[in-house]
Design goal:
It comes from Salvia splendens. InterPro entries: SAM-dependent_MTases_sf (IPR029063), TPMT (IPR008854). This is Thiol methyltransferase 2. This protein is α/β, with parallel strands linked by helices and 247 residues long. Helices cover 36% and strands 20% of the residues. A seven-stranded mixed β-sheet has the order 3-2-1-4-5-7-6, with helices on both faces. The N and C termini lie far apart (40 Å). Bound molecules: S-adenosylmethionine. S-adenosylmethionine (SAM) binds next to helix 3 and strand 2. S-adenosylmethionine is lined by residues 47, 51, 62-63, 88-91, 109-112, 115, 138-140, 154-156, 159.
Length: 247
């Protein structure tokens, strides 16, 4: 039942390849039973290996093969902050290079060595390549020298185990400048069981982000979602409102 739902979730031509990927990731989720901090270390190596295998075997049903349309739209309409941007879990790096420009340096981060190599290969001939940096590292343990004006990601929140969401939010808050923008694509908004990808809702984001001081400045249907994801994807923009932060 669970496997039969998965093709609908990512909806790419590679969807028939999803079940083996899912089984492997699920196995690793189930094999961890440690307290939270120790668990992250375990996630780091087990997940890194699993994601790497997905990339190595071409089991990447989430990959659009092009930049995320709504991100390109925000870039083209001047609706993204300049300065330093971060794309965690960047995969093939299409989004990284799509919004990189002379006024905005973009860091693409992924824990899979193979994804990062692929991203560098795919983007190196782009005129914007000089405005990008790709890093193979774990989002949860990485500490950069400088903070970011913008963080954008797609299919990353749904890829991590729900119990890590508060750590995810704390990390977002630690990586962004106090007045920085967090742009989230909230997907998949549905009611399937299990994961990854895990189902998500606006309330899940609020539950994670409110305690670290983020408030939504925009939540709307993503009208530019690819056809199979339409109706199950929202655009969320968040900013820190420091008086609410309790951490
Ligand atoms: C479902 S894929 C999405 C890739 C890309 N955002 C896209 O939409 O095409 C999730 C990506 O997050 C990466 N990832 C998962 N956990 C991570 C972590 N803790 N730190 C960095 N990258 C991570 C995986 O290697 C994988 O490439």
């Amino acid at each position: 039942m669970r496997f039969s739902l998965l093709p609908k979730l990512y909806n790419s031509p590679a969807r028939r390849l999803f079940p083996p990927f899912h089984r492997r990731i699920l196995f690793n989720y189930m094999s961890t039973g440690l307290p939270q901090l120790g668990k992250i270390g375990l996630f780091q190596c087990e997940f890194s290996d699993s994601w790497d295998k997905c990339w190595d075997e071409g089991l990447t049903p989430w990959d659009l093969g092009s930049p995320t349309p709504v991100l390109v739209h925000l870039h083209n309409t001047g609706s993204l902050p300049k300065g330093r941007a971060l794309v965690p879990g960047c995969g093939s790096g299409y989004d990284v290079v799509a919004v990189a420009c002379a006024e905005r340096h973009v860091v693409g981060l992924d824990m899979s060595d193979i994804a990062i190599k692929k991203a560098i290969e795919l983007t190196s001939s782009s005129p914007n390549a000089e405005h990008c940096t790709f890093l193979k590292t774990d989002f949860f343990t990485w500490s950069p020298d400088q903070l970011f004006d913008l963080i954008f990601y797609y299919t990353f929140f749904c890829a991590i185990e729900p119990e890590l969401r508060s750590l995810w939010a704390k990390k977002m808050s630690n990586l962004l400048k106090p007045d920085g923008d967090l742009i989230t694509l909230i997907y998949p908004v549905d009611d399937h069981e299990g994961g990854p990808p895990f189902k998500v809702s606006v309330a899940d984001y609020e539950e994670a982000l409110h305690p670290v001081g983020f408030e939504a400045t925009q939540i709307s249907e993503n009208e530019l979602a690819i056809a199979p994801r339409k109706g199950r994807e929202k655009l969320g923009r968040w900013r820190r409102s420091l008086h609410r932060a309790s951490l």
